[in-house]
Predict the 3D structure of the following.
Amino acid sequence: DAIEAGGVRLNLPNATRDVLAKMTDEGLDIASAMKSPSYDRTDGAIVSPASNGESGIPEASYDDWTAASNDRRDRGSNFGALRAASSLLAQSPADHVLRRDVALSASDLGFPAAAFQALKSVAVSRPWEPSSYVGMAGAARDAGLPDLAVVMYEVCLAGEWEERFVSFRE
């Protein structure tokens, strides 16, 4: 029996379904990884606030925010760097390519749970693309949630992806 999830058919083997049924909620809770004290730490770096436009949303170009992110990272504030990178999303919330870029930055900066959340947003809007699920699996693994990582990898293997993603199976 296939499962329909977000517009993608998943053909999970019975053994996988049995394993999933035995997993605890704690092992699947990405929000618990978001409670890390590293999210509140700036490591002594002084982070300058972003300027806001008339709408109250920080405004700057991609290059400006990327430079600000790199500067904050170089001064020892990975959290500040992530905040600068994610400010781009306030200007272009529907840009899934940008959201993936921010997810990769979050992962590189040591915030895998934030990367998972960004990729989850992409997967919700584009469920037919297996790359988001692979990224979420890696982020869950890096966040110390192996059960969630297994679930995401199983989704990748069990999904019936569109023909244009035929190379994904190879």
Remarks:
- The domain at 3-37+60-161 is CATH 1.25.40.10 (Serine Threonine Protein Phosphatase 5, Tetratricopeptide repeat).
- The chain has one domain: 3-37+60-161.
